[in-house]
Amino acid sequence: MPAIRLDGKLLAQTIRTEIAARLTERVAEGKHPPGLAAILVGDNPASQVYVRNKRKACEEVGIRSWLFPLAANVPQRQLLDLIAELNANPEVHGILVQLPLPSHLDEKAVLDAVDPTIDVDCFHPENVGLLSAGFPRFYPCTPHGCVQLLRRNGIDTAGKEVVIVGRSNIVGKPLAMMLMQKRTAMNAMGGDATVTVAHSNTADLAAVCRRADILIAAVGVPGLITADMVRPGAVVLDVGMNTVNGKLVGDVAPGVAEIASALTPVPGGVGPMTIAMLLENTVRAAELLDG
Ligand code: NAP
User: Fold this and answer.
1) Tens-digit pLDDT profile for residues 217-250
2) Which residues line the pocket of ligand 1, CB cutoff 6 A?
3) 23 is a domain residue
4) Which of 16, 37, 50, 140 has the CB geometry, 3.0–4.6 Å to 174, for a possible disulfide?
C-alpha cells in the first residue's frame, strides 16, 4: 500500500489560520501586532523567492513585515549597524537574515549580532544553548516544522528509533536535540525518541537507515534515500530541497513511497511548515516581550 502523504501545505495553512485568530485577539486587547524585519543581502533569486514568501505569509496572518535589501558588496559594518538599529526598535519582534550571505561577510558574527530575544530563526548561541539544555526560548523553524508534521498527524515519537541523515546546525543537529529530549512542561516538543544522527562519514548508511521507525533526510543530495534503505512501514520525512532540471526534488527517491507508511512530499511537505514556524516564533517573541 503506498505511503500516506503527510501534507505540509495543508497543515501549514491550518497553523496560519490559528495564528491569525491569535493575532486578531491580541490586537482586540489593544496590543501591538508583531513585526518581522527581513534582511536580504544581494540578489540571489532563490533567496528573493524565500523572503517574498515569508513576508507574504506574515502579512496574511497579521504580522507586520519590513524588507531591508542590501547590495551584495555591503560592508559588514553597515550590516551590523542595521541589525543594531533593528534590535533597538520596539516594533520589531523578529529579525530574519536570509542565508546564505556573500562570502566576504562573517556569517557567525552577523547571526550573533541579532538580539537573542528576537532571534526567531533560533541561530543565536544563547538560543541554541537554551534548546540544548531543555529550556527553549524558540524552537528552530525547520526542525519544529518536522515535529509538528509528526505530532499533528498522530505519529508519536516517544520510544521510537529515529534516524536523521544530516547534522547541519540548521536542520539535523537541532532536530536531533528536540527529538531526543525529555518531554516536559518547559519543553513541550521534546520527542523522547532514541535518535541516531548519520552524516557523510557514516559507515553503511543503508543499514543505519533501516533501523529507523522514523527516518528523516536532511542532506541536499537528490534521491539519496532509496527504497532498500527504508524499513517497511517506516515514516519518512524529506527535508531536502534540491533543484534538478528546474524542478524541486527532495532527498528521498520516488520508490520509497511504496515501502514507507507515511511520507512528506517535496514540494508541499516540510518547506511550508518552516515558514509557518517562523510566524509562530515571531508571535512568541512578541508575547514574551510585550505580553
Ligand atoms: P548542509 O548544511 O549542507 O548539511 C548536509 C548534511 O548532510 C551534512 O551533515 C552532511 O554531512 C550530510 N551529507 C552530505 N552528503 C551525505 C551523504 N552522501 N551521506 C550522508 N550524509 C551526507 O545542508 P542543510 O542546510 O542541513 O540542508 C539539507 C537539505 O535540506 C538541503 O536540500 C536544503 O535545501 C534543505 N532544507 C530544507 C528546508 C525546508 O524548509 N524544507 C530548510 C533547510 C534546509 P557532513 O556533516 O559530514 O558534511
Assistant:
1) 999 999 999 999 999 999 999 999 999 999 999 9
2) 142, 165-168, 170-172, 198-202, 205, 218-221, 224, 239-242, 270-271, 274
3) no
4) 140
Which amino acid is it at 35? G
Question: What is the distance between the alpha carbons of residues 21 and 19, in angstroms, rounded to a whole number?
Answer: 5
Rounded to whole angstroms, the Cα distance separating 186 from 71 reads: 41
Sign of the C-alpha dihedral computed for residues 83, 84, 85 and 88 taken in this order: positive
Single pTM value for the model: 0.98
Alpha carbon 221 to chain centroid distance? 18
Domain range spanning residue 42? 33-115
- Nearest by Cα to 272 from 155, 111, 145: 145
Give catalytic residues, as residue numbers.
Answer: 54, 98, 121
Where residue 95 sits, what CATH number does that domain have?
Answer: 3.40.50.10860
> How far apart, in Å, are the Cα atoms of 135 and each of 132, 181, 218?
8, 10, 25
- Closest residue by Cα to residue 65 from 88, 44, 31, 93: 93
CA of 170 to the centre of ligand 1 (A): 9
Which residue is listed with cell 490559528? 18
In a domain, 126, yes or no: no
Per-residue pLDDT of 65-119, as tens digits, reads 999 999 999 999 999 999 999 999 999 999 999 999 999 999 999 999 999 999 9
**pLDDT at residue 268, as a whole number:** 97
In a domain, 12, yes or no: no
